[in-house]
Structures are given as C-alpha cells and as structure tokens.
Amino acid sequence: MMRLQCPAVFLLLCFAAPMRGQQPARPAGDSYQLKPSPKTATWGYFDAKTPPALRIKSGDTVEMQTLVTASRERFETAGLWPDRVEPAWREIYEQVKDHGPGPHMLTGPVYIEGAEPGDVLEVRIQKIRLAIPYALNTFSPGRGFLPEDFPYERVKVIPLDEKRMVAQFADGIEIPLRPFFGTMGVAPPASAGRVSSAPPWVNAGNLDNKELVAGTTLFIPIHAPGALFQAGDGHAGQGDGEVDITAMETSLVGTFQFVVRKDVHLRWPRAETPTEFITMGLDEDLTAATKMAVREMIDFLVQEKHMTRDDAYMLASVAADLHITQVVDGNKGVHMILSKAIFTKAR
C-alpha cells in the first residue's frame, strides 16, 4: 500500500445523506493506494477479527485493486494458467492457506477511524477501471439457478475491449461494459464470527448489484469498530439474476471515498445513484427478499420524504421498480429502484 501526496489545500466536496438530499460540505481527505497481496487480502470471508490492511480517516479516498474470482482449475481449463494470471493472484493462491468458506479474493480490510457499530459507512464509488483485458464466465455441476439442466462444467473466456468498452462474447455478439464490484462489504457483528463471502447479508458483501457502477454511493450499516471494508469480485458486466452463478468475472481497480455517518442509522444496505434511490432485500426466500426491499423503500419514504405509510406504499406501487438482483448466492437479492425525478419539490 502506498500513500499518495496530499494537496496542500483541501478541496470541498458535498456528501449526500443516504436518500435524504445534500448535507453541509466536508473537506476531502488524504488519498491512498491498496494493492492485493498475501498481506493485504483475505480469501473467502468477512470477520470482525481480521487485522486491517490499511487505516484511514473519514473522508479519505482509497484506490483499491482487486482480483478476478476464479479457481486455478478454471484458469487451467480456460488455457490462461500461468502466463495470463496476475502475479498477485498466484502469490495469494500459493501463500494464503487460511481461506474459505467463500470463493472471493477480497482486498482489505480498510479500517476507518471513528467508525463504530450503529454508524453507517458511506462508500462513494468514484471510479472503476479494468485491470485485465478478459473476463471469465463459468458454470459447474450443482450450482447456478438451473443445475438440473446443466450438470457439467463450462468455462468461457470473454475478451474485453477497454477502448470501445465492449465485451466480445461471441462472433456477432458484443456486450456494453458496465464494470462494478460484485462484493463490497464491512465486517459482520463479532458474534457472527467468520462468515462466508458468498451470501450477501447485513454487512452487504456479495450484493452482485449491477447498478453500483462508478458515480453511485453504497450505504452500509457498521457492525464492528473501524467498519473493516473489503472489496472484490469484479464484474465487467452482469444481467439481473446472474443465473449461471457468475457474471463477466474480471479484475478491477476502484477508487472509493469513505465517510462515517453518525447521523444515519440503517438496518440493511441501501444505495443511491445520481438519478435514483435503491433499497435492497436479502433472504434465502425470494418472496421474503422482495418484501424486505419494498418495506425498506416504504421506510425510506416515511423517514426521509415525510410521507405517510399509506402514501409510501402507494407510491412504491405506481412509481418504483423491483429487480431480481441475483438468485444464486444463498441469500437471494431483490432491489427496488425509485427515480429522483418524480420529486418536484424538496420534502
């Protein structure tokens, strides 16, 4: 990890409260870089006991490099091992033996000073860029949404054209790139111990929400001192649902600004884009996840837009859209999107 030179004069940035409009300007902080290595990455879990890879202050910015989620066997099947596999990935594979139960190589954790349980971590996703010129999509026996239909393994290498920002899926098929991090999360409550990186939960984690591109903000309830933010599971793009259990899996470099919010209290992760509000539901049962996303939207409208619960329920029905985030990660995900444009007056 390397600390970048900080400008002599702080720039002022305005931070938006989660779904409640603008707050007073706050000074920008220092900037850092965090690259993956056996000492700055974890493999497959979130845990409040994980030692920090980097310590920063609220308002600081970190450029984090992350590694593609894949096994050595997948790389070998795809004909990529070892020449086209990043050296950092190989070093972690060879040296980190304390890993699991999830599959993701995660960079971090980042400890934010002053973050305490009950606060909210505002994660401003400023930039995302590709780190390698390919992605992988795979399915295997017993996994994905249709394991009974595909009881075998397939690995596909998808070239990425960063200049044109398209993925060359096949001859005559190009997919626009919308890179995002499938996994962004904080430590779970200490009482939970080590939890798998696979299912998303109260600490966010493997949300696989394709709306969380550069320019968006994720709000995560904090459960442990320092928050202990980790990121990884880079996706060059994904369809809602992620039905075969993988997206266009790749390595990404993201620039995040972290702000500890003591004026906000959330039960579950929420997000905000420049044009939309997003609530989320996470549960093993898809119906329960859907109800959670709707109830979270109603709560937002009541608390932040000062609506009655009846009107909030009605507005969610006539103006908000439900999306299936993913159906393959244990806890299924549903997110509800509401356009900011419908609010013609400040509330």
Could you characterize what this model shows?
- With 347 residues, this protein is mostly beta strands.
- It has two domains: 27-265, Jelly Rolls; 276-341, Acetamidase/Formamidase-like domains (Endonuclease I-creI), CATH 3.10.28.20.
- It contains four helices and 26 strands.
- The protein has helices at 72-77, 87-95, 286-304, 309-319, and strands spanning 2-3, 12-13, 16-17, 21-22, 26-27, 31-34, 41-43, 45-46, 54-57, 61-65, 105-113, 120-130, 134-139, 154-161, 166-170, 173-176, 180-185, 195-196, 204-205, 217-221, 229-235, 252-261, 270-272, 276-283, 321-326, 332-339.
- The strands form six sheets. It has a ten-stranded mixed sheet. Strands 7, 9, 11, 17, 19 and 21 form a six-stranded mixed sheet that branches. A four-stranded antiparallel sheet has the order 13-14-15-16, with no helix packed on it.
- Helix 3 (286-304) crosses helix 4 (309-319).
- It is globular and about 60 Å long.
- The chain starts with a strand and ends in an 8-residue tail after the last strand.
- The model is unreliable at 1-17 and 20-24 (pLDDT under 50).
Short summary:
13% of the residues lie in helices and 37% in strands.
Which tags fit this structure?
Jelly Rolls; Endonuclease I-creI; 2 domains
Strand content: 35-45%
In DSSP terms, counting alpha (H) and pi (I) runs of 4 or more, how many helices?
Answer: 4
Question: Can you give the mean pLDDT?
Answer: 93
**What is the helix fraction of residues, given as a range?**
10-25%
* Structural class category: mainly beta
- Low-pLDDT windows of residues: 1-17, 20-24
Q: Radius of gyration from the CA trace?
A: 20 Å
Q: Major beta sheet, specifics?
A: 10 strands, mixed
CATH architecture call of the largest domain: Sandwich
Number of strands: 26
Strand order of the largest sheet: 1-6-10-22-12-20-23-24-26-25
CATH fold-level name of the largest domain? Jelly Rolls
> What is the N-to-C order of secondary-structure elements (H for helix, E for strand)?
EEEEEEEEEEHHEEEEEEEEEEEEEEHHEE
Distance between the termini: 43 Å
The first-level CATH class of the largest domain is given as: Mainly Beta
CATH level-4 homologous superfamily of the largest domain:
Acetamidase/Formamidase-like domains
Number of domains: 2
Bulk shape: globular
